Amino acid sequence: LNRRLAEFGTTIFAEMSALAVRTGAINLGQGFPDTDGPEEVREAAVRALRDGHGNQYPPGPGIPELRAAVAAHQERFYGHLGLTCDPDTEVLITTGATEAIAASLLALLEPGDEVIALEPYYDSYAACIAMAGGRRVPVTLRPRPESGTYALDLDELRDAITDRTRLILLNSPHNPTGTVLSREELTEIARLARERDLLVVTDEVYEHLVFEGAHLPLATFPGMRERTVTIGSAGKTFSFTGWKVGWVTAAPELVAAVRSAKQFLTFTSGGPFQYALAEALALPDGYFTGLLEDLRAKRDLLSDGLRAAGFEVYRPQGTYFVTTDIRPLGHTDGHAFCRALPERAGVVAIPNAVFYDHRDQGAPFVRFAFCKKTEVLQEAVDRLKKLA
Ligand code: PMP
Ligand code: GLN
To answer: What is the rounded CA–CA span in Å between residue 218 and residue 237?
Structure first.
């Protein structure tokens, strides 16, 4: 293994899901729903397979039907904010958001370029920045226990920008903290990007999981359309994490750049699933609000249950994750806590420390996923209450 990758080891998701399988514990670690997405979308995939749609290499940028559906989705949900999207030049279908992140960084970074990422950050960010030869510069989201939220210190963000900064890698709604950046924070990020001539790669895979207020794509802020690469994922929006279909939307030159990298990573992405997801993206608004309301109730169930079990809870404004502080339970090392939790309580969770460069900052925090059946969450809460 080369030096660029050696520090990353095995992802925490593989480690913790293997632990869940080995112990039979309830897996609230890796974020995947335990209920598959809509039946009509699954049927559409079967139909595509059977009818021979997409069984051979689809076009590299994605099938026209899906690119059109992504563009229509952007206009349906964000058109009132002025967002438009040309399906031929401004959309690229990828193998999950994971490939979109990798291809964007590989396409846009020169060796030695600095990338600012909000810490804690999704684990593939650090590895992909390294694979692209970039240098990550973390800006730490600060926990605010009084309000049960995390805050971005805009002064820290400003101070982190240097002459070597090429781009900001943003994620809102934010995994693992559940933070949704406010209009004011996004306005300031946009201002800094314009002023310092930076690109922004914004991972908005949880765009439909915003419990308070509405999702605001960074690309809709003044002057950002031409310098923003926006990433979405069918895994999150339609509960098909195993299908690995995502997308990039951006100005034509940026999409062309990301496509240049994608063509040598995977060339193209799973064909029949693309046909099915073109239909999924056209589902009525009720599908999207139904998903949100279902997860809102689950967020409340798990947050309240964790609080009753003695955890300090950071109530998520978005995503399907809740971050907790384990210090009220008498623990300080989240990784050790998570390794022992299946034996002690029959539950698997993720230690936030693995998403930090400054591991000490993340040490006492542990993430639980709530994209699970109500009875599963209830059982997990009952088990965790016995910990105290
Ligand atoms: N970004 C974030 C913030 C995520 O949480 C995830 C999924 N865990 C991804 C990207 C990857 O998405 P996909 O499964 O579509 O590759
Ligand atoms: N995105 C999911 C999470 O944060 C799973 C990612 C993965 O398995 N690589 O839990």
So the answer is: 18
